[in-house]
Amino acid sequence: MRVKYKLILFFLLLTGLRPAFSQQKTRLNTGWEFVRQDLGGVWEAVRPVVAGNPESVPLWDKVTLPHCFNARDAVDPDVNYYQGPGWYRTQVAVQNPYPDGRTLLHFEGAGQKTDVYIYTTKVGSHVGGYDEWTVDITQAVADFQKTEVYQKQFKGQVPISIRCDNSRDLELIPSDLSDFNVYGGLYRYLNLEYQPAVALSRLVAKAEVDKAGKAGTLTLKAVLPETVAAGSAPFSVRLLDPRGKQVAQYKGTLAVKAGEQDLHQFAVKSPRLWSPDAPQLYTVQVTVGTGAQAYQQSEKVGFRHIEFVEKGPFMLNGKRLLLRGTHRHEDHAGVAAAMTEPMIRQEMVMMKQMGVNFIRLGHYQQSRIVLNLCDSLGITVWEEIPWCRGGLGGPVYQAQAKRMLTNMIEQHYNHPAIIIWGLGNENDWPGDFPEFDKQKIRAFMTELNDLSHRLDASRYTAIRRCDFCKDIVDVYSPSIWAGWYRGIYTEYKEVSRKEFEGVKRFLHVEWGGDSHAGRHSENPDNALAKITAGKGADERAGDASLFGGSARVSKDGDWSETYLCNLVDWHLKEQEIMPWLSGAAYWPFKDFSTPVRPDNPIPYMNQKGVVERDFTKKEAYYVFQSYWTTQPMAHIYGHSWPVRWGDEGELKMVKVYSNCEQAELFVNGKSYGVKKRNSQDFPAAGLHWNVPFVAGQNQVRVVARQGKQTVQDEISFRYQTQKWGKPTKLTLEKVAEANGLTTVEAKLFDAQGVQCLDAASWVEFSLAGAGRLLDDLGTSSGSRKVQAYNGRALIRLEGKPGQTVVAVQSAGLEPVLLTL
């Protein structure tokens, strides 16, 4: 199985995703200009310009797509992120090779309201930042190519201008109360597509198999556009098995008319089944027409049988599958929502390597690239629409929600990875409207549930955290944050069981806690002593705030990676012995930006990820690996913990996260014995040792064994026995230089010159002269304003010796300057 898994990853990295949407499609990535403001009208984007004349302003920036308005300001500690209009423009050569064919602009997603122009003609608009849509520019291009300005001003190119707008709008989903940024821009790929006269708008492929996996059927339908001319056309369909071998073929005649048409139904005996361990994908190839005018489309499908047992677990292909999941936001350091295909692939492969077999895509329809990877990697999916917080708007609001649900289901219907359509998130959260009527919300939720089942009867519906609607959907997830927003983490199983008994089908999505990358603790569970146990672990209004209210770890804890690892460790240990559990999904995989958390240790960042916003792994990543993967691994806790502390001769805990049968620990060359892994022996599944360190440098090594295989890990750190007082002094020094970047480190010391290893003071970096800080990245080492982690903070920069001065300051302390 490990060999098969490696081959899947290798194939993905080499070949990427599924075949192209159609045979004549080009990504428009380069040659764009952008201005982050409104124009007086489209004429300002296309009028003739002479350098130095008034028409040359506003100034446009050169950009590549995907591109997001908020690539940097989403995590700028000093400003609200920009919400408003922005314009893009480019020029392209349009040469459709098909007589009577159509020329389309295919948007994979743009935020949040979009208008599209060919020269000065408006050719299309769209509302909604996350679904795909197309604009037919055939006639507008033909008309423009007849004009004098086409040849004289634009030299045979067609000018495309696009206005995107993410202004705040209460009648638009998602709500601006949401715990994520409502981004603006062309932050997914934009494609120029040529289609012949007869082409499909959509190919519907429904792959089904009985519970025994013996009898499979594949039902194919074609959807044709409104613009198609009535008639008939020959078509053929080929079905290839996962090895590329043709297993079925059909030829027929298609009645060419707008709307949905039946193509064919194949019977597939004992199909190769799709699963997380073996994501077997068949290929459907459809050809309409003949010769050079033929339209071709290829889709991947998978045969699998899904069942959420009432009052029980999740079943895949007749066997229980514990859903081991996480969540994904479309967000990354330096680009915000504008993640490229290689970035997305890297993120999804990292999830799979962590052991994930389930993902909830929060809280909106995500890129087709993500869904293709889930199919290929074997990751089951809950995908949802962005009806998130704020209440319920009026007719325009509700029509948008229905339209986005319809688009999501129709556009992603063929993906075998998808098992759940999500209808909403935290819809019990008021705030956007004077009225908050639970009965009206229930009625609208019922409409969405019915619509989902009409569009797709084969999948389940679900929502998270809206108790007064939990009986409407097929699957419900309450809010359980044991050990973070409420209660202590040892209550997790008890609270989950209670919630499980109150619904038809239970799935726990969103659990975990924040951690400030690089911050570690010798006493991580201290805050639990302040928490009242037995009061339940579900989140309530105000619990996410860092101010006021009852004691809770989210407000009163240390936000250390150490505490988060303990919380994760406990949850995973318990999930191993909950036979009724369908599954759970940790929130989220990666830190992401949010406008509603300005006071977090990295301002405007939700820091609950197990990797940072730039893919840097936190320690908790390896806790998951130790429970969820089979490839032998071992990881000593503390790779980013350069200085530990305690008394001389004090026994200190060393934890090793490993999936191996046994492990032996060595400290400074001395063996401290072999321990056997036991998932129920908390912490670290029994692989923990209490050992003495020596003052100064220490070396710790582990050798873990699984059968005949051996894996090792090693760390070194300084052990400090000196006690410290409050910080009175800052220092700043250069600690590394690589790839043209310099890393500087600020440290906090007390009056005696002892490093304050628990200091969490705010520090702020700045730069003068040549160069720039690599800030506004939303990472612990990529923010100019950040809380210290164990009395230190890092930042990288571009600079020139003798021409760059870096400064650091912290309230109440003397600022420090460093000349490179």
From TrEMBL:
Domain Glycoside hydrolase family: 736-815
InterPro entries: Beta-gal/glucu_dom_sf, DUF4982, Galactose-bd-like_sf, GH, GH2_Domain-Containing, Glyco_hydro2_dom5, Glyco_hydro_2, Glyco_hydro_2_cat
Pfam family, one: Glyco_hydro_2_C
GO molecular function: hydrolase activity, hydrolyzing O-glycosyl compounds
Record carries keyword Hydrolase: yes
Domain annotation Glycoside hydrolase family 2 immunoglobulin-like beta-sandwich: ranges: 200-304
Keywords in alphabetical order: Glycosidase, Hydrolase, Signal
Signal peptide (residue range): 1-22
Domain DUF4982: 649-709
Domain Glycoside hydrolase family 2 catalytic: 309-522
Keyword Iron-sulfur: no
GO annotation terms (biological process): carbohydrate metabolic process
Lineage top rank: taxon: Bacteria
Family per record: Belongs to the glycosyl hydrolase 2 family.
Protein name: Glycoside hydrolase family 2 protein
Organism: Hymenobacter wooponensis
Lineage: Bacteria, Pseudomonadati, Bacteroidota, Cytophagia, Cytophagales
